[in-house]
Amino acid sequence: MSANMAKGKRSPVMKVAFHLWSAYRHVLVWFWVIFTVIYFGINEMIMRGIIPDESIRNSGREWDGATISPRIFLLVLGILLTIGSFNSFVSNGITRRSFGRGGLLFAGLLSISCTVLHLLGYPIEMLIIEISGAERSMQYPNLAIVAITNLLMYFGYFCGGWLIGTGFYRFHWFKGLLVCLLAVAFLIGMETMTATELTGSTAADQGIILFVLALASFLIVWINDGFLRKIAVKRKITL
Amino acid sequence: MTITIEVSRLGLLYDKSAKALDDVTFRLEGGKIYGLLGRNGSGKTSLLSILASFQQQTSGEVRIDGEAPYENERIVNQVCFIQENGYLSESFKVRDVIKLASDCWPNWDADYADRLLNQFELPAKKQIMALSRGMKSALGVTIGLASRAPITIFDEAYLGMDAPSRYYFYEELLKDYMEHPRTIILSTHLIEEVSDLFEEVLILDKGKLVLQEEADKLRSRGSAIIGPADAVDQFAEGLTILSEQKLGGTKSITVFGELGAEREKRATADGLTIGPVSLQDLFVHLTRKGIGSDERKHG
User: Membrane-spanning regions, if any (chain A) (predicted)?
Assistant: First the structure.
């Protein structure tokens, strides 16, 4: 089968996901490389006392907290999705529904990638500690729970950003701001849920937390999809 | 493959009250080149963007190949709508834009696209934001032509191009249309340049369709009369004069309305020369303030 035939047979949803992934995969890799280097670099300086910070020095689990920057990174990518790509796809004969579903698939791919890359950070951290010969008590959490929680949080942040971008694209600034507040409210709710110490809570608690996170993500996606369906293609955003 | 477009009582409101389109009804048979003319703010882009499913109408109905186009997977990839500086992602490179288009348009001709890119000297590795206005226009028309979409719409898409590039585009458009018949809609202010391409003309004014007619028939509704000033003045009595020019004892006038066989015979007897009128002159007349709709439709 020729490359052209394969292209032709790809569904519109897959076309959207494929082109978004092609456009952003390098950005994703570069972000994680730079972020990891800076993160471990700063932590090493803290551990060696070059930067004085007792709280981190005593915690022993630095990498656990390394999800905030990736979340913000995904939030920004989400904000840019409708603003930067909606016109291109719809003007090339893709329906809004396919754009929405393709974007969702892309969000899933990004979230899985970030989750896997974050998990890879644990052995890297261990290796750095071994090489540096530092003495630290490493208390790793349940990695399965961490992975699922991070996956849902990454997904939620990306879709939250997507909702913000869609809101400002579709509506005038005031309504866009209201949509932005709604998205932020969802994200604050999700953050509050994960503030519970997962490793110490019961399985039932963990299940409830994950369910609420999934539900919040679903609601964000559902609202965003509703906005996307009626959106008019604009040359630029009117604020 | 040719597709019919049917528009019935189409309306579009802006800001809940201002009418961009008002009760527009027409039918476009497939496999023709249409010229959509209108003054600034007449509703041309609004109409075309509804045909291309870029936005939804407020009222009325659009049928393309018998189906409503909005969010219709079967129809949207049959309608390629190209505008100047349209909807290209500024951060994309030329090759990314072409790659996306090649993946999305079912009839995409990659070799033809490459040939056009070479002809317009478009650098594949350059980002859209770094392209000149003319280059962006050239990229747009490349996508429009190479898409081979059964309905291809160019809305002032070639305004930014210089004259040689525009004429190359007109030649290429006609050549490709002859080889691959499809419906092409050209919306433009450069009427003189493209009027020879039009098979049928639609004129919009203030959101209303004021005329839909075959281009040749429309041209026949106007005449240029040249001859001695006195004879021209006598001949013009009772006719609608669009413009007049005088040089010495010779006068040239442009009139609207069919002359009829008797008048034509009289003109020859009076030593007057009758010539054709440009579509642009007729357009200017038909969209000038105060022209009644009756005259527009019946001459």
Answer: 21-42, 72-90, 102-124, 144-164, 176-196, 208-228
